[in-house]
Amino acid sequence: MKKTSLRWIPAVAVPAVVIAGAVAIPSVANADVKLPHKSAAGIVAFAEKSAGTSFSGSVTETANLGLPDLSSLGGAGSSSSSSAQDALSQLTGTHKAKVYVDGKTKQRVQTLDNLKETDVIRNGSTVWAYDSDKKTATRLTLPSKSAKLDTGVGATPTPGATTLTPTEAAQKALDAIGTYTAVKVSDNVRVAGQKAYQIKLTPSDGTTLVSSVTLAVDGKTGIPLRVVVKAKGQTDPAFSVAFTSISYSTPSASTFTFTPPKGTKVEQVKTPARSAHTAHPGALTQRDAIAKARVGAAKPVVIGSGWATIVGATLPSGALSNDSSGMLDKVLTKVDGGRVLQTALVSVYLTDDGKVYVGAVKASALEAAVAAQK
Amino acid sequence: MSQDSSPAGGLGVALLGSELRVLFRRTRTIAMLGALAAIPILLAVAVRITTGGDSGRGPAFLGDITQNGLFVSLTSLVVAIPLFLPLTVGVVAGDTIAGEAGLGTLRYLLVAPAGRIRLLVVKYIGAAAFCLAGTLVIVIFGAIIGALLFPVGPVTLLSGQTVGVADYAGRMLMMALYVTISLLGLSAIGLFISTLTSVPVGAMAATIVLSTAAQILGQLPQLAFLQPWLFTTYWLGFADFLRSPVSFDNFQSNGLLQLGYVVVFGFLAYGRFATKDILS
């Protein structure tokens, strides 16, 4: 009997060690990261200076906005989806992507979904967007002026900052957000195996749904490695984008070449001269630019300022009518004069006359602000 | 079962050889491989005779088959991974120890100086060999029937690049390897369950039920925290070999995860089997 129980020892010990290791390793990795001290302004300057650094890496994006996870409803195989549905599924669940950057004018974001992929490839002034599922390619030619602007992952371009040193630009940026935001340095972390600085932005505006935004900036190169957005009244991050691995070697030139394959529907789009400019960690700006170009040159309406800014736009006719599955109706709530979508982080208000308003405030505040406009 | 001339120091090679011979000569194994081969054949024939336009429904890549027969293997893998492959692997893995016990041949196997650990390892390698055989059968029969019924040409990857047939064949083999590795964790679970009972059907059913249960758990957003630990999580990740550049992230994570399952359930199976009183 004794011998029997002794024989069980390795059989129990080894699985226990494997399971304990799998659970414990991620939490140990963050212990005590030492980097030379930098102020909040110093870290922002450092991040600004990183523009143009070549690298490639894997990115994981997680959205936890309190919406039903539509990515699983679509299933692995179904290939019919409207653009509204696409946008919604991008806002739910976890998405993986690869990012390749070579200098300031070559970027590629490869979104890896099960059995399908979307690519946005920028090579000089040409941007290609390819969807393997729908078999469509969109070609966008950037105006020569904005081709010089960095829209990459490095940093958010600051208009008119070309004559300033990065440090001055960072200070200006910090001053500008200072009126709406408290900026604080928090503990260093390890992201994607790199030592990184962290700064935390807290909106001073009480009406916004955003509770805080935390940036992790690589201690060696200054590339932003992680952005975590927390919403009020929710402990899990509402939205996070982070590198899971990164390499600082220049990606091969073939990574940035694209020729639409046979049987693909190709669409040509001309951009308006003003380039899209969002607070996202850069990777998403090109897609936004294409989305905006598609919507047309309708000038968006801006209500309010700071974190509680509300942006309104006119939808192209028929943008919602092709939602065959009624996916939109499942997440929208009917209210006076339209329908609203309330998530943990942003609210969307679709008016019956075809306008859409988006803001990081409560849906009721959004409705009130829109009503006050009329 | 027909294990005889294994010399004490033969490292189990003879035992492995006889195990593989017995496994692949079994009518049941041949029938299961035949059923797997029927998947691409049925699929290709169905697509060939129904010339109606692609309605955008059905498994991924189904619409591509009419343009390029090489997509038959791929679509068949997509169809087979959630159900048919785990089903057949569950039958083989669940049968490993319980089957011998059920037939009353287990004690004769152990009378020969084979040792319980060696028998367990040999049985597991046999199950793993079946995983590889099952996947290859789907891929190869898919390629053959696809080439017979449809035009074959350069393949468009998920990233939009086009590669030649030779390049695609290499990628297809890597995908078969990926799928085989994906099934190793399930085989280890089956081996462990198989040591618990002497009723092979029970072990088979339990293994198959677990693979289905894991897939259902993986679909529930409320249980998202569980997903990285489920052995089914990376099952559909094989399409990473259709990207340019090829992404090895899933391959690595999947390999590590399956290795974890093999170690955990391998040692549990050893613990159970080494301490078990063999009565049958």
Automatic annotation (TrEMBL), chain A:
InterPro entries given in the database record: DUF2092 (IPR019207), LolA/LolB/LppX (IPR029046), Sporulation_related (IPR052944)
UniProt xrefs under Pfam families: DUF2092
Official protein name in the record: Outer membrane lipoprotein carrier protein LolA
Species for this entry: Frondihabitans sucicola
UniProtKB/TrEMBL annotation, chain B:
A Pfam family assignment: ABC2_membrane_4
Keywords tagged on the record: Membrane, Transmembrane, Transmembrane helix
Record carries keyword Transmembrane helix: yes
Entry superkingdom: Bacteria
TM stretches of this protein: 30-50, 70-93, 124-152, 172-192, 199-217, 254-273
Keyword Ubl conjugation on entry: no
PANTHER family recorded: INTEGRAL MEMBRANE PROTEIN-RELATED, MEMBRANE PROTEIN
Protein name: ABC transporter permease
The organism of origin for this protein: Frondihabitans sucicola
Source taxonomy: Bacteria, Bacillati, Actinomycetota, Actinomycetes, Micrococcales
